[in-house]
Every structure is written in C-alpha cells, then in structure tokens.
Amino acid sequence: MPEIQEIKFVRTKFPQLKEETTPSASKQDLVMLALQNPRAVTRKLNDLSFYHFLKYFWPVVSAHTFQENWHIKYLCDQLEDTARRVGRREPRLYDLIINVPPGSTKTITCSIMFPVWCWAHVGYWMRFICSSYSAALSLESAEYCRDLIRNQKFQEIYPDLDIREDKDQKSNFKVVRKLLDESRPGKVPKSISGGSRYSTSVGGTLTGFHGDILIVDDPLNPTQAVSEVELANANRWCEQTLSTRKTDKAITPTIYIMQRLHQDDPAGHLLAKQKENVKHICLPGEIRNYREKLNPPELASFYIDDLLDVNRLPWSTLKDLEADLGQYGYAGQIGQDPTPPGGGMFKVANFEVKDEIPPESHIVRKIRYWDKAATLDAGAYTVGVKMLQLSNGRWMVEDVRRGRWGADKREFIIQQTALLDGQNTVIWLEQEPGSSGKESVEGSIRGLAGYSVYAERPTGEKAVRADSYSVQVNNGGVYILKAPWNRDFLEEHRFFPFGKYKDQVDASSGAFNKLVGKKICRRIT
Predict the structure, then answer these.
(1) What 3-state class would DSSP assign to 368?
(2) Average pLDDT in the 70-82 region?
(3) Contact (Cβ atoms closer than 8 angstroms) between residue 210 and residue 247
(4) pTM (two decimals)
C-alpha cells in the first residue's frame, strides 16, 4: 500500500494525530491503529487491493494453504482495474480474455472471490452473471461465494454486507447493504437492496437477467471441445445470448477465463475476430515450448525455469500431465496452444514448395477431388484440390479452389475448373449423406458431361482417411506449387484434425487415395 495512503487513512481514523506526522513515523502510527482498530486496517487494506482480500479470506473457501505466485496478483490487478471502471460508471476499455492452465486458482479468484470483493469495495449494487460449462460447477462457485459472505470472519470485517433473506438461492441470490447505527445497539439495522449473482451454464437461459459484469469460467470441458456441435453451441451462446445481457453495453465488461481446448473454442472464436476492444492475457504453464503464446510477452521475466508456477506446476507435474492429457491435450490446456508443437497429424514444414509444375513427361496422373459443402450456411467450404502423381514417386498439390458458394455458382465454378484442368484430369466428387447429397452429386456429374468424373460416399473418420496421405507429407513426399492459397492450406494441415476447418485436408487425402488406388470407400455407380 502506498505510504501516503497509509498516512491519510491513519489521520482519518485518528484526527488527534498531528498533521506533521512524517512518512518515517507512519509505520508506528499504523501499528498503534492496528492495536486499537485492527478490523478497520484490514478493511482498508482489502479496499486498496483485491489481492490482499483474496489472501485474507483464502482459508474461508479453501482447506489448502495459500501458495503465493506472481500470476495471481497480476490477474487480481487486472480484474480490479476492470471493476473499478464499472464502479465509476466509466465506458469499458475492453473485454478480458484470460487463458491459464487448470489448477492455477482461476475459479477461486474470478468466480468466487471477485464478485464479493466488488460488493464490499466497489459497489454493493453491482449485478453479476456467472456461467460455466455445467450448471453444477457454476452453482458450486455460487455456493462458495454466498458462504463467504455469511462466514463469521467475513462478517467481522464487513458487518454491513449480507445476503437478502427473501432472495437466497444458489442460482440467484441478492446482497443487501445494512445501515448500521452504533447509537442503537441491539436494533435490527435498516438495509438497502444491493446487487445480485445469477449463475447458469453455457447454453442456459438468461431471459430477464442483466449484469454489470459478465463472467465466463471455462465455457467448455475437454469432452465437449471435441464435438463440433458443442463448440458451435458454446460460441453461439457467448456471441448471441450472453452479449445481450449487459446492463449497459457501453460499460459492462465480459470476462472470459479459461484454458484453451480447441482452435475454435470461445477464446479462439473471439480472438479470430481481431476486435480492438479485447484484451488478451495468455499465461502458458511453461514457455520452454510455448513462449510465442505468452501475452503480454514481457511477463516472461516472471517465469522461473520457464515455468508459470514452480509450486503448482513444476516440470515433474507437467511431465505427468503430458502423459495423461496426450500431446494435443497438453498443448491446449498447458501451452494454451490447441495444437501440438510441430503440428497434429501433419508436419507442415515438410511440404516442399515448388515454383513451377514439373514437365508433362514427369506427370503420371492428375486428379481433381471436390469436397462440396452441404449448405451455404454451415460455415464449411467447398474445396477442389488438384493433385499430381509424379514419376519420381512423389506427389504435387498443383491447385486449390476454395470458397463458400451458393449451389448455382458452385456448379459453375466446378465446370469452369474442369475446362481449365483439361480432359486428362480425372474428377472425383465426394457425396454427402442422404438423398440431398445424392441428388447434388448427380447434378454435378450431369454438368460435367464429357469428362472422366466419378463420385464416392466416404466412410470412417476424416483423420483415418488422411492417415496414408499424412505419412507421405511427413516424409517429404508431397510438393505444393507456390500460390496465394498456400497459407490457408498449410494452416489447415497444421491444425488437423483439431482445427476449425478440414475441407482442404479431406479433399487432398481424397485425391491422394485415388492416385495411389487406395479403396477407403465404395464407388457410386
């Protein structure tokens, strides 16, 4: 606490102290104050520092001894700055996205302690909406939060803050500010209705509720993150439902605190928009392998032996976690990079980029494989990959056509591409399941009259179908022609099969399997 603030506080509580009290004597004055009114000192220290509040009340919410680490104070300071702006009704500067590993006290800090500190020191009127991936987890945090206010240790310091008796549910409780009158001991104090905490799960109802601060603590768990449906639902809820529940859209901040689980999890989805009013804090559990993910990068000076927290997450613990989580799980949850170092299935550095196509005499066969998006609104791309089989036993990706097109434009582009490729390029079309998929592929075949064109309905996982193709890529057996599409093509391969898009890899593996004659599915006649 700054010394000048200490002196002002002492003088406020003890006006009999002389004005000429010097900074050197202020520590003595505080000792005297602490002996006469220790609770007032504690309250003031808590007021000045959320981190001090967290440490002081830690034993109330945790049976484990508090272990200090720099990242906890850093996050406390960030949350404190955000809350004080709300308390002053100032326009928000940004929403917060905080990525930290599991086991770093994020839930106690952000979901349990933070709302209570705000009611005690920033504004008893503040309303919170708190959510997590499950209702049970969200309610558990709410219960700890409510029990903290009721605890005797808390009431000794804050006798003026309590839970409203007629609004006392874990899922939705309100606080009151009691107007204490020391001149009327034994009398029931009057109270003013204050703020609230509404707890829900991601995807849950929010109709009728608004918040001055919105908190999202782990919107997905690792199981949900592998489901495209769960990912889409979480992103849609955060983007379209939660965002409309702000008390004042100009002031209310949203705080996301989570580990990374997927390239397109809510943190990745929001960061991909590159909005200016978002502050991203990313603290990998270790920076020996994930230094580029650290944000802001100057925090590297606080890492010891490249570790975020040498007590909670030493190298021995991280080694065990990597064995338990696997390479991908470790990369996301510890490294905050939801793709393993060096890639997933594909080592993209092993693609050899060529400036030109080999002479025709060196080309054995050519195939253009189309993976058509089922609908325009699904978010997927229609992709046509042209791949060459070369006489030296290698393969080349010559061209990639990729876009989100309506049915008519898509069929036009497929036909125009066939014209440019020429008659000696065999065309394969992937058929989507169902009658609509069959009708679509039959329409494409009719439009390609005069060309060698076939269709197939793939079976099995995309990763399985890409396996033999990935082996050739990883061993340097696949070239790509230098072109503007290279960047997106390589990025999709780098994240596969965990990335948001899989269409280019799917079309590439389809073309490769046709060139080598691998039968991964039956041909449609």
Answers:
(1) strand
(2) 97
(3) yes
(4) 0.67
> 188 with 174: CB under 8 angstroms?
no
Nearest alpha carbon to residue 39 among 124, 119, 156, 148: 156
Label the pairing between strands 254-258 and 95-99: parallel
How many other β-carbons are positioned within 10 Å of the β-carbon of residue 226? 14
Beta-bridge partner residues of 478: 395
pLDDT band at 345 (very low <50, low <70, confident <90, very high): confident
Q: What is the pLDDT of residues 460-475, one digit of tens each?
A: 778 778 888 988 998 8
Strands (E) across 394-500 are located at 395-403, 425-430, 453-456, 478-481
Residue 213 forms beta bridges with which residues?
128
| 3 band by pLDDT with thresholds 50, 70 and 90 | very low
* Secondary structure of 174-191 as H, E, C letters: EEEEEECCCCCCCCCCEE
Instruction: Annotate 309-354 with DSSP letters as a single string.
Output: -TTTS-HHHHHHHHHHHHHHHHHHHTTS-SS-TT-SS--GGGPEEE
Region of 465 please: left (phi>0), alpha (psi -120 to 50) or beta. Answer: alpha
Give residues with Cβ within 8 angstroms of 70, minimum separation 6: 302
Condensed to tens digits (0 to 9), the pLDDT of residues 18-50 reads: 333 344 445 666 566 666 778 888 999 999 999
Chain centroid to Cα 5, Å, comes to 38
194, 218, 261: which is closest to 132 by C-alpha?
Answer: 218
Q: b vs e for 115-136, b when ≥16 Cβ sit within 10 Å of the residue's Cβ?
A: bbbbbbbbbbbbbbbbbbbbbe
Can you tell me the distance from the alpha carbon of 486 to that of 508, in angstroms, rounded to the nearest whole number? 13
Nearest C-alpha neighbor of 516 from the set 384, 380, 364: 364
Question: Domains in the chain, please, with CATH?
Answer: 37-282 (3.40.50), 348-524 (3.30.420.280)
